[in-house]
Amino acid sequence: YANEVGESFRALVPVFVVWASYGVATAYVTADAVDKGKKAMAAVNPQEEGGAMQAAVAMVDTFIWQGLASVAIPGFTINRICAGSLYLMGSLTRWPLPVRKWTTTAVGLTAIPFIIKPIDRSVDFLMDSSLRKLYKSNKKPPPL
């Protein structure tokens, strides 16, 4: 949730802090993908043909899924929620700018738990409907 928190605080912190939060999130996504690839490689029989390919698919699938579900879509969503709330408070209230910025941050942080499941489900549907069709097989994938 690093980049979502970073986006929530965008109105209050220098932009490099927000970009750093994306760096942390991307590092997590990369580490998770490498971990899934290693686990998939350890689960296949060394004599079985295509074991390395199964591990590569597990790693790439995890990286794309996590990149979309944990970084790109939530970051964009929180960014737009915060920008919209800051704009609306500027239009509808006479609150001082610091109060509007802190309120925007609170709105962004509060929204994070509500956007997670819908985004995860949407990314599952997107991946199942597109990319995963390319590498689906009749074989049962190795347990991760």
Automatic annotation (TrEMBL):
The keyword RNA-binding does not apply. The chain crosses the membrane at residues 12-31. The keyword Nucleus does not apply. GO terms for cellular component: mitochondrion. Signal peptide: none annotated. Keywords: Membrane, Transmembrane, Transmembrane helix. Pfam families: MTP18. GO terms for biological process: mitochondrial fission. Belongs to the MTFP1 family. This is Mitochondrial fission process protein 1.
